[in-house]
Amino acid sequence: MNKQLIECVPNISEGRDTAKIKAITDVVETVEGVKLLDVDPGKATNRTVITFVGAPDKVIEAAFRLIKKASELIDMSKHSGEHPRFGATDVCPLVPIAGITMEETAKYAHQLAKRVGEELQIPVYCYENAATEPKRKNLANCRAGEYEGLKEKLVNPEWKPDFGPAAFTDKVRTTGATAISARDFLIAYNVNLNTTSTRRANAVAFDIREAGRMQTDEFGKNVLDANGEPIRIPGKLKAVKGIGWFIEEYGIAQISYNLTNINITSMHVAFDESDKAATARGLRATGSELIGLIPLQAMLDAADYYLIKQQRSLGCSESEKIKIAIKSLGLDELKPFNPREKIIEYLLEDENPQKKLIDLTLSSFADETAAESMAPGGGSIAAYVGTLGVALGTMVANLSGHKKEWDNRWKEFSDWAVKGQQYKNKLLQLVDEDTNAFNKIIEGFRMPKGSEQEKQLRAEAIENATKYATQVPFMVMETAYNSMEVMQAMLKDGMQTSLSDSAVGVLCAKAAVTGAYFNVKINAKDIKDRTFAENILKRGEDIYQKTILIEQQTIEYVNSKM
Q: What span, in angstroms and rounded, lies between the C-alpha atoms of 133 and 135?
């Protein structure tokens, strides 16, 4: 069963007092197993977005402690800020990340809401997927009237809190109310405009957001339908909420968006459409600002979007794509954008990761290989040689796509470069996996062998580890052999001035196949399951013979061209 993981993104109504913010966020880290990922304060909004992740029970406990601490330190009767709000912990959404459904996440949201209402005596409204009735799904409805209208709202039977007191008690006067939900991953995203006008920023927001704007007549009055309800003109993009505001801290107006489903409307589409709408109104989008965190894929999708618009190859490295996304969206216009601090997958990496071979410098990798240890050995080196080979083929594809006279072939070469990157990444992963597989065998031999049961368990562990240590180099063989299609295509159709580069790539791939095949053979001889061993040896021999043929054809072809 996969480990269950949820994210919690509470927004507290304090963005200026760093001591208070720290005191509130510190309580999150008092819960073992919860990782605080991001703290993003805003002075103008007087609001801080906090992000942490962990197992559901742990996250619920951390969220409760945070809400409690915020209620002790924030006095809503004295609060002011640009952002809509009605409580010290204004919203506290739970987001399913891994191994858990939205329905399960909603149950955890109700558990948290019930505890906050009963133990802290704070009114709680449940929204989005935790809503108890349709009209409460929308946060804007739950928060309508904000803190200033809370006294009247709490005694309105239609807006009785889901949990907690339905009265504006002395405590509620300082804590306000809290909205708790289970929702999809939401991106809080602001687009910067070259204006100071909130009204003009709102006009662009109304053009874009799903709710659009009220239809008005020539006198500026709302047009009503047959039932007397205002008619709305929908905005251009679905799953988008937005308003305009002026940020004194930066001296500009922004459009503040909530992208509630980035599979429907992505960050880059929101930015581009905002720029188009702004341009139509005599304005311009100059950049943007990400509040909180973003999934890696959203950044890579943005890079691909702009690379396609520029008719450039998509087959570049992940780090290069991140740079392209940052520059294209202007994410660093207002302040530096550090991918290691803003991309959720990077933050979820182990804080003290074991150093991988592929993270070493070239000289350190060579020193590690030459040291008095059996790993890394031939298997890891074979995988790395294969990596270098397909990297050369990918380079030729990218260079070919840049040739002026081949502008109309950019997608052809981009597709080959993308394939090359995929092979390269798989082989890089196998560099370390070969060493891991060897270590599993060592672990098996170190198991106790006193009793008959221990001997059996030890034998099974060694057998399984040996099988895996045979499968890993076979994967190197298979991947390196398949990667040769990139170099072969570039030999035939790529830049002929890079013919030798493509050829060297083929020779590296052949060396990877051969070296990995030796590892398959030496490990397979110790496998007790001879059916398994003979099958993988047969498949390995087939790949090896095909690779020799490609090597011979490549040498003949290159010699004929020189």
A: 6
